[in-house]
Amino acid sequence: MSPLHRRRLVGFLQSAGSIAVTLLLLVTLTFFLGQVMPVDVVSRLVGADADFQTYEATRLRLGLDEPIYVQFWLYLGRIVTGDFGTALLTGHRVIDDIMRVFPATVELGTFALLIGAGLGIPLGVLAAVRRDKLTDHIIRVVTLLGHSVPIFWLGMMGLLVFYAWLRMVGGSGRVAVFYEGMVPTVTGMLLIDSLLAGDWDVFWSAVRHIILPASVLGYASMASLCRMTRSFMIDQLSQEYVISARVKGLSNWQVVWGHAFPNIRVQLLTIVALAYGSMLEGALLIETIFAWPGFGQYLTSNLLLGDMNAIMVCVLLVGVIFITLNVIADLLYSVFDPRTSK
């Protein structure tokens, strides 16, 4: 085995080991979080009017009479076999519920990321190029508002102005009530499913409904990406190679996008990946405001109900999302910067 292949193998094993340890710690934290929650799982299952015999039988069946370390071992065993329990709210397996609602959140988060990154990165570059000028000050005020304004307030104001008053966008939900259930579920993402079905009425209705919640969710991401891009670009534009490029007579466009910007792509990858994870996690408020039937609304409903099976799986899923996005970002490093793979 060549030294290069050996280093790659060692790096892979180290990454796999760190991911395994992180997941184990996450599972452990999730389990003990469930233990300290003031929720009687047995009462939730059998109901408040159940007799003592039914209560005790259910408690024994769940293994809650065992010591904590035995319960934890049983919990790990169930997770390894894919048994995440049954949701009290729906009566279905929690994993089935997650697979049903999560595509809606992915669709919303992806649309929001396209808006946030599509606006935030170019605006950040523009702010850096026009540093301390009027354009830069305007962009910085816009991004400051994105960091400061509560997302739930922005969502409610958006519904009031653009839906209730101007009628420019759709209201709550993913599609107009008339179109619900009109296209078969293939991916769970309504925009894609409506295109696959060739139903343009459903597609445009879905676009009208997703544009406002995605814009509100993407605004906060846009503010963060714009600020970080501006900071990275200002650092690069002060480097000697940029001065040399300008001396050679290259246009401002060539200097900015051909020389400076490629050197911040690797840094932006991590920021964009974390922004995407934050959108999937932070969609909770937006999905509640816009009655979006996704992961955030599912988690909110189960938090109010106190269903620890669903809550713990949701916490695990958030952790897995961030781990996965970081791994993907690391893999993309070698594409944008081959030096990292040597």
Automatic annotation (TrEMBL):
PROSITE patterns: ABC_TM1 (PS50928)
Entries under InterPro entries matching the protein: BPD_transp_1_N, MetI-like, MetI-like_sf
Superkingdom classification of source: Bacteria
Secreted found in the keyword field: no
Record-level GO cellular component terms: plasma membrane
Primary location class: membrane
UniProt keywords, alphabetically: Cell membrane, Membrane, Transmembrane, Transmembrane helix, Transport
Transmembrane segments: 12-33, 108-129, 141-166, 206-226, 268-290, 310-336
GO molecular function per UniProt: dipeptide transmembrane transporter activity
ABC transmembrane type-1 domain ranges (all copies): 102-329
Gene3D superfamilies for the chain: MetI-like (1.10.3720.10)
A matching Pfam family: BPD_transp_1_N
Cellular localisation: Cell membrane
Recorded topology in the membrane: Multi-pass membrane protein
PANTHER family xrefs: D,D-DIPEPTIDE TRANSPORT SYSTEM PERMEASE PROTEIN DDPB-RELATED, DIPEPTIDE TRANSPORT SYSTEM PERMEASE PROTEIN DPPB-RELATED
Family: Belongs to the binding-protein-dependent transport system permease family.
Annotated protein name in UniProt: Peptide/nickel transport system permease protein
Source organism per UniProt: Devosia lucknowensis
